[in-house]
Design goal:
291 residues, Alpha-Beta Plaits, 8 helices, 35% helix
Length: 291
Amino acid sequence: MDRRSFLKLMVAGPSGLILGVKPGTAMAGELESLADPVGVLVDASRCIACLKCEGACAAINSLPTPDHSKEATDKNREMTDKAYTVVNKYKTKTGKRVNVKTQCMHCAKPGCASACPVGAFEKTKEGAVLWHTQCFGCRYCMVACPFDVPKFEYQTPVPEIKKCTFCYEKRVSKGLEPACVSVCPVGALKFGKRSELVKEAHERIKQNPGVYVDKVFGEEEVGGTCWIYLSPVDFGEIGFKADMGTRDIPSFGKPFMKTVHAIDFVVPPVLLGMGWIVRRRQRKSENHTEE
């Protein structure tokens, strides 16, 4: 074991050693923003709700074929353990319909990873947030995610946490755009370096007065996300939380996590010491009885 791996395990504390935290996964103390991850710009003014992105997502992830019947798509749908992305249609105050695709936002500093006590989440160098199988089902990630993304397989004997993977293994890690982006026929989804996408988003707002609200959602929300959005109406009208703030989720738990790690290092030696004292007294008592 090299020095870096050892330090990661020590950061996880004795509990991490016991639970088998996977070296290399993102721990709460190392969730720093990447220099320039990849991302996707979603332009809600362009989306026509063709739902091809849903089909592509299902195909590449071996998920059930999405239900695209009128009954299903006329109502707002949520992501599930069998649907990593959905497109919903919103009727706004002006009467204009706006279509919005949602999926994991792949936060720069993900709350799901910071809340996981066994390091089951990984923040890759490209920006994707991935889940690994050392999970033991606490579901803290579901509570910590500000976008309600991680989904638990309640109906499965050996349940897992399911969510959008950014097509990391099959596409993004190989320099390809996510499957959903590759099939969009109207350019509502654009893949690239996040910094360049943010610049382009602001440029679109500047060059098209009246088309977009003057805001890029995800640029600063909860510390920034790899998926960012443009909208022709206020984001609160199309299902986004308007009061998320810019503070990243892990920062709320850092003081507590430091205390937990301190306890990890203090309590085991104390318990070992107490055990040694008890055993020593027992041996003395036994020796005295034999005499």
